[in-house]
Amino acid sequence: MLVWPQAAEDDLELRTYEQVLDAVEQAGGEIDWDKPFPARSTHATAIRALWGQRAV
Predict the structure, then answer these.
(1) Of 2, 24, 53, 54, which has the most beta carbons under 10 Å away?
(2) What is the structure's pLDDT at 26?
(3) Secondary structure of the chain: what % helix, strand, coil (to 5)?
């Protein structure tokens, strides 16, 4: 799984796989290794929130 937050070059804190997995599960989802999340899904929003980002 690749998580690439916007402005990744801005020294954002590192997040572990477990943190990402927990965020997705708390949003009511699970990681599907065969396809990406839609950019505006609740799952993607939960992942972006780990870095304090919102959907664009």
Answers:
(1) 24
(2) 93
(3) 30, 0, 70
